[in-house]
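User: I'm writing a tutorial on reading structure tokens. Could you give me a worked example: one chain, its sequence, then its tokens, then a sentence or two explaining what the tokens reveal?
Assistant: Sure. Here is the example chain.
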Amino acid sequence: MLNTSISIIPARNLQKFYKSIIGDVKTKKRTVVLTTNSKPQAALISLEDLEELTRAKTKLAALEMLKLASDNKEELKNLATTVTRLGRGIPAGGEIEFADEETLGSAIERRG
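And here are its predicted structure tokens:
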């Protein structure tokens, strides 16, 4: 679960206190918003929170694609191409460029 603890600090403090700020982000999973002239400029989050946000974004994109396909089911039926399920063995949002030959072959064979 994403941490909702947020600290707002001026960006100039990052240079002075970077070790403790980064330490808090890493160990306490605290989000830090850096400001300039009291306006938010950037945010620091833990790697775990970044990974969770990435997973959530991937799931949301997949759900949106499924909804789009469901909403346009009749139009898709009338296309001249065959629509099959995603290949198995490759995670949704996974980079196909990094999949090895065996995984790709297996995913294509089992997609049905």
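What the tokens reveal: Strands lie at 6-10, 31-36, 39-44. The radius of gyration is 21 Å.
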